Fold this sequence. Notes:
It catalyses: D-glucose 6-phosphate + UDP-alpha-D-glucose = alpha,alpha-trehalose 6-phosphate + UDP + H(+). By secondary structure, the protein is of the alpha/beta class. The chain has helices at 66-80, 89-108, 119-137, 156-165, 172-181, 212-215, 221-229, 239-253, 282-286, 291-303, 322-335, 357-377, 394-403, 419-426, 457-468, 472-488, 491-504; strands at 12-15, 25-26, 32-33, 55-59, 82-85, 145-149, 200-204, 233-236, 257-258, 261-263, 269-274, 308-315, 343-350, 385-388, 406-409, 433-437, 450-452, 517-518. The strands form three sheets. Strands 1, 4, 5, 6, 7, 8, 9, 10, 11 and 18 form a ten-stranded mixed sheet that branches. The longest helix is centred in the C-terminal third of the chain and has 21 residues, at 357-377.
Amino acid sequence: MYPNSVQMGGFIATQSVPSAPTIQTPEPNGSLTSPASSTNPQSSRDWDSQSATNFSESWTGFYIPREDRAIVDKRLMEEYSCLAVYLDDDVADKHYNGFSNSILWPLFHYHPGEMNFDESHWLAYRQANLTFSEAVMTQVKSDSMIWVQDYHLMLLPIFLRGMIQGAASLGESIEAEYKTLQEGLVSGADPITTKLKNVKIGFFLHTPFPSSEIYRILPVRREILLGTIHCDLVGFHTYDYARHFLSSCTRILALPTMPNGVQLSTGAYCQVGTFPIGIDPEGFVTGPQSPPVAKRIKELEQRFQGVKLIVGVDRLDYIKGVPQKLAALEVFLEQHPEWIGKVVLIQLAVPSRQDVEEYQNLRSTVNELVGRINGRFGTVDFMPIHFMHKSLPFTELCALYAVSDVCLVTSTRDGMNLVSYEFIATQQARQGVMIISEFAGAAQSLNGSIVVNPWDSQQVADAIHEAVTMPQDVRAEKHTKLFKYVEKYSAQYWGSSFVGELGRLKAGGSNTRGSWKTMG
C-alpha cells in the first residue's frame, strides 16, 4: 500500500494500512492501479505532497513476486519517494487481519467481545514491526525525524530506539523485555554499526485509545505501551484519548505521568499531545462547481424534488452505528407520520472485511432493518431508505453530499470521522445540518453540529426532526461556524502542527515536563 502513505519533507515517515489494504494491480510497466474509495479519500493523507524532499515507507498491501520487485521499487521511489516493505503472506495476514484488526481494532473501539487473541498473531505482529524497523534503519541518518502511523506499528518506536541508541539505553529492566519482544523473530538486517545522533521519533494513533479499564483486558497490554512510549512525541485526536493513554501508562506500567507526557525509568520523557486531523477541503469546496458534479447534483435534485435528503456514508463496520441510525429513523417516522414521503435517508455502506463472520452478521442485520423499515413506511412511489452496499467514485460522492440537507453520523466509537468534514466542505450552497455522535472524535471539534448519543434512538429521532425543520438562518449560522473550522484546521495544518512540535523537542526523550500540548 503506497499511495496512502503520509509523505513529509526532510525525513522518513512510516505508515501501515489505515483501515484496509488498498488493493492495487501491478501493470506490465511497473505501475500500480487502485480502485476509487468512497470513505476517507486522500483528503486527509497527502498533507504535504508538495514537499521538495519527502520519503515514506509502507507495506505494499498485496503480494509482489520477487522478480517484479525491482521495477516496482524503482517506480515507487521515483514517483512517490516511497520504499516498499515486503512481508511474507502468512505474516502479513496474521499481522493485519489477525492481531491488528482482530485484537487492537475491537479493543480500541470498546468491543472487547470481538477480540480473538492468538499467540501466532502476536508473533506476526512483532515480526512485521521488526521488519518495518529494519527497513526504516536502512534510510535513517543523524538528525532524521521518523513519524510512525497508527495501531499496526505500535512496537516500531521501541525497536527503532533500541537499534538507534542500543538496547542498553532502554534501561536494565526494559532491555530484558525488549529482548523478549524479539524472541522467535527472523531478522534480515545486519547489526547497526554507525552511531546515529539526534534522531526524533513521533507516533500518531488514528483510532480512539480506550479507558484503562478496557485497555487492561489486552493480554499484551504492557508490551504495546512499552513499544509506544519510546517516542519523543505521541499524538492523539482528542484530549480524552490522550488522557486514557496516560492513565494506562500509570496503572499498567507504574510510570509517573504529567498531563503532557510520561516519565520513563531511564529519565527520558515521552511527550503526549492532541492533534485532531482534518481534510484537504479544497476538492470538496470546488467539487460541486465542476461540470460532472453539477450535472449529477441537478439530476438528484430533480429525482428528490420536495424531499429532505439525509446522507449517511460509512464503512459497514460495527463501530459505525448503522443499525442505530436505522432504528432512530424508524422512531422518527413513527412519531412524525407527516414526514413520510418527505424524508429520505441515502445510506452508503462501503464493504469492509466481508470474509469475517462478525461483518457478515452485521450486513444481515442492516439488510433486515432496511427491508423492514421500507416495507413498513414505503409505497410504490416512495422508499424512506435508499441503501447502497458499495463504494462510490468521488464525483458521485461529492454530488450526494452537496444535494443533502442533513448528514447523519451515529458511530458508536470513531477516532475522528472525516465524513462529517467532507459534508461540511460541500455545503456552501445548501448549508445543511450536521448530526454527529458524541462518540466520534470530530464531535469535540465541530461546534455547530447537533451532537447525539447513538444508543438513544429517541434523542437521534428528535435531532432528525430538529434538522429537517431548522430555519434557514439558523442553518446558515451553524454552517458558517463549522466551515470556518474545517477550512482552518485542515490536513495540512494537522501535519504541520505535529511535525512542528516534534521538531521542537529534543531527541531521545530528553525533554522537560511542560504544559499540556494541543493543536489550534
